[in-house]
């Protein structure tokens, strides 16, 4: 059973940094794409970033490009999201997700989320 558990959220001032972690377990992820999404109150879920596990290819949403960095540690089965230059509009619950690389867009597995709050 695939399990994704996020950690690292918290309260930070605007301009600050946070690093989110996602512990992935239950299978090998070499043929998977891992992603980060976020959802703010009253808003739809938003794509943040994704990474192809096998070769580290990354892709970012426009709102976080050049500020956030997604990475993974193959040996530890860990996914990370380094968030720099945080803005109040980055406030949201952040979710880790996983999907087979051959199934575009549809993420089958989700974590429970971790809250990130950026104060102005």
Query: Strand-and-helix sequence, N→C?
Result: EEEEEEEEEEE
The largest β sheet comes out as:
7 strands, mixed
Tally the beta strands. 11
Radius of gyration: 13 Å
Number of contiguous helices: 0
Overall 3D geometry? globular
Strand content: over 45%
Could you tell me how far the N terminus lies from the C terminus, measured between alpha carbons in angstroms?
Answer: 40 Å
Calculate the mean pLDDT score and round it.
96
Helical fraction equals: under 10%
Derived structural class: mainly beta
Notes on the structure:
Strand 4 and strand 5 (46-52) form a beta hairpin. Strands 2, 4, 5, 6, 9, 10 and 11 form a 7-stranded mixed sheet that branches. A 4-stranded antiparallel sheet has the order 1-3-8-7, with no helix packed on it. The mean pLDDT is 96. The chain has strands at residues 3-7, 10-13, 18-25, 32-39, 46-52, 58-60, 68-73, 78-83, 92-100, 109-110, 114-119. With 120 residues, it is mainly β. The chain starts with a strand and ends with a strand. It is built from no helices and 11 strands. It is globular, with a radius of gyration of 13 Å.
Short structural summary:
The protein has no helices and 11 strands.
Task: Provide tags for this entry.
120 residues, mainly beta, 7-stranded mixed β-sheet, 4-stranded antiparallel β-sheet
């Amino acid at each position: 059973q695939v399990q994704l558990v996020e950690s690292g959220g918290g309260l930070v001032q605007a301009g600050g940094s946070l690093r989110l972690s996602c512990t992935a377990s239950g299978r090998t992820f070499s043929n998977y794409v891992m992603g980060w999404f976020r959802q703010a109150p009253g808003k739809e879920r938003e794509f943040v970033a994704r990474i192809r596990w096998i070769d580290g290819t990354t892709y970012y949403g426009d709102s976080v490009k050049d500020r956030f960095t997604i990475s993974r540690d193959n040996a530890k089965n860990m996914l990370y999201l380094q968030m720099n230059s945080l803005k109040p509009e980055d406030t949201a619950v952040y979710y880790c997700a996983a999907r087979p690389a051959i199934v575009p867009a549809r993420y089958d597995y989700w974590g429970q989320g971790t809250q990130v709050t950026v104060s102005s």
